From TrEMBL:
The chain holds residues 1 to 265 of 365 of the full protein. Its EC number is 5.4.99.5. Signal peptide: none annotated. It is an enzyme of class 5 (isomerase). Keywords: Transferase. One of its GO terms (molecular function) is transferase activity. The keyword Disulfide bond does not apply. GO terms for biological process: chorismate metabolic process. This is chorismate mutase. It comes from Rhodocytophaga rosea.
């Protein structure tokens, strides 16, 4: 179905001492103080990279839509103090230009962008000739071809360091999860692109913090390479995704309780 694409191992472009790679941080960068204090707490846990949304693609208007460029200098300050790579969601060529100007290390394409080939192609064209790793979340709907297409568009733009993020799929009938994991979809993706690194985002799959551990363990049982877990100092009062964020203390427990499946090869 798809041309043979070859992907570099995650460990060749993000430093992490042991599997899984852990990316943690708040759903949204709310204030400079929040970002800095969260980053300090996460540094103590030895996470491998930080995350925070600054352009937030909210499904409905009148929710917090992110601080935008105002938050970029905060990221610079955090990077200077804690020295960890920082990942941010981008959705337009303008976002890419601004994020790179401020030294953002890793870009990710959100589920509401992956769903739109015009949007993905615009992003891909803006990434041509730019050396930055790109994480590609699954599309919001359970459509494997859109995920594959987004990966191909970014790859064809010459981006060398790519990973997929599995964040679950929206369905009309809500079950246990905010977004149904449909594990067979990422499993199928891996049969098409066997060396594509894959990261699980249990926060957006679960939608509730009590589900994060089991979802993370399931991802590791399936030999995923990494986890992206939303972490907030005061989750109940988070400006976005309050129900699913965990405190740094809870993240530490989750990480220490996970049983890592070692690759058999
Ligand atoms: C997020 O990571 O905060 C986010 C908005 O993710 P998604 O695109 O998976 O909904
Ligand atoms: Mn979120």
């Amino acid at each position: 179905m798809s041309a043979n694409l070859t992907f570099k191992p995650l460990s060749s472009w993000i430093k992490y001492d042991q599997k899984p790679l852990v990316i943690a941080g708040p759903c949204s960068a709310e204030t400079e103080e929040q970002l800095l204090n969260t980053a300090r707490a996460l540094k103590k846990l030895n996470v491998d990279a930080l995350r925070a949304g600054i352009w937030k693609p909210r499904t409905r208007p009148n929710s917090f839509e992110g601080n935008g460029v105002v938050a970029l200098p905060w990221i610079q300050t955090v990077k200077k103090e804690v020295g960890l790579p920082f990942a941010v969601e981008i959705a337009t060529p303008q976002h890419i230009e601004e994020a790179l100007k401020y030294g953002v290390d890793i870009l990710w394409i959100g589920a509401r962008s992956t769903v739109n080939p015009f949007n993905v192609q615009e992003i891909a064209d803006a990434l041509r000739g730019v050396k930055v790793p790109v994480l590609i979340k699954n599309p919001i709907n359970p459509e494997l071809a859109l995920w594959i297409g987004a990966i191909e568009r970014i790859y064809n733009a010459g981006v060398e360091n790519i990973a997929a993020i599995h964040r679950g799929f929206s369905t009309f009938q809500k079950g246990k999860y905010r977004n149904d994991p449909f594990w067979q979809i990422p499993i199928e993706l891996k049969t098409i692109f066997p060396d594509l690194p894959i990261i699980c985002d249990p926060s957006h799959i679960g939608g509730k913090r009590d589900l994060i551990f089991d979802l993370s363990q399931k991802a590791l049982d399936l030999n995923y390479d990494g986890l992206m877990i939303e972490t907030h100092l005061d989750p109940d009062n988070a400006w976005s995704d309050a129900a699913q964020q965990v405190t740094p203390d809870r993240l530490a427990e989750i990480l220490s309780d996970l049983k890592i499946r070692q690759a058999s090869s």
